[in-house]
Prior knowledge:
The complex is a heterodimer of chains A (105) and B (258). Chain A is an all-alpha fold and 105 residues long. In chain A, 70% of the residues lie in helices and 2% in strands. Chain A has three helices and one strand, in the order H-E-H-H. Chain A is elongated, with a radius of gyration of 24 Å. The two termini of chain B are 19 Å apart. Chain B has a single domain, classed as Orthogonal Bundle (Arp2/3 complex 21 kDa subunit ARPC3), CATH 1.10.1760. At the A-B interface, helix 1, strand 1, helix 2 and helix 3 of A face helix 1, helix 3, strand 1, strand 2 and helix 5 of B. Strand 1 of chain A pairs parallel with strand 2 of chain B, so a sheet runs across the interface.
Amino acid sequence: MKAPEKPGFRNIIIIAAIAALLVFSIFVSRGEDFEGTDGQAQKAIEELSPGYQPWFSSVWTPPGSEIESLLFALQAALGSGIIGYYFGYQRGRDKHREKEKKCYK
Amino acid sequence: MRCKGWLQVWGTFILMAIPQKAYGMHIMEGFLPVRWCGFWTILVLPFLFLGYRSIKSLIAEKPSLKMMLALAGAFAFVLSALKIPSVTGSSSHMTGIALGAILLGPYVMSILGAIVLLFQALLLAHGGITTLGANVFSMAVAGPFVVYYIFRLSRALQLPVWLSVFMAAAIGDMITYIATSGQLALAFPLAQGGVLLSFYKFIGIFAVTQMPLAIIEGLLTVMAVNFILEYGDQDLNEISLVKRKDVFYDEGSREARI
Lengths: 105, 258
């Protein structure tokens, strides 16, 4: 019987594909400033209805792009922490179960 | 060996978390006329109610799935924080709603997606409170439902799990932006040509930029499901009681296959 393929190998391919896609994106659009699409949508709105005035503004805006980066990084960090905890916990539990099984044999 | 796979996940997340200037998506604060804000908010309320009930019953019946719920939320949290450069020279971000929609169903994601959007609206001035209803509709209602049904359909057609997950996540990501374009077009129809021409304009902004991102989102979701099939088997068995385990297993085989 063929040994089951480890997910590690597949994941390496996936990561390589993502990295290649990102490098390609940055490469083909050299010289661009990678403006966000919502900023562009805002411009389109101004074009479509020139008189439109936003009727509400953000309750709180991060003071400066550095603080904004910090908050985005924090959001990503919190999320990845939980993801890491989940898989670590699952793995630990699996290992523990295997051990218990061996003890009873 | 398993340890290595671990580092890979962390590595990618950390690499991709390097922040980039400029915003991503979502309709910005104040940029939707009042009546449309009201319309989308009202439309979204029943979904949020059903989502709340769905989460409540999930926790009551299967407390051990709480962690998977946290995982689904965290995945959306991380992916929507990452601003990714695209081939068009602009950047946007992913939604991350597919994993939870596939594992726990679309209703659950309405609440988790709304939490992510609220966080970004309040702390990052990204999206907005007034446009929350519209953004919840596109990212946390339309997206998850499309993801869920594409996944179920692909599995019913006996496509492999990885392909089903990839397609569901990638198309779900695109749907979110198509919905956003539709919402903007409805609110800002072109004086000559109307809603449809306006829709083309907005879709022109979002769609091409989003395509590579949708592929990345699909790939990352496949990776996450890979890891769950490897390590989270216990949780998948729990899901079986919500009658979804069949989706991850091929007929006649006890082993999860991807």
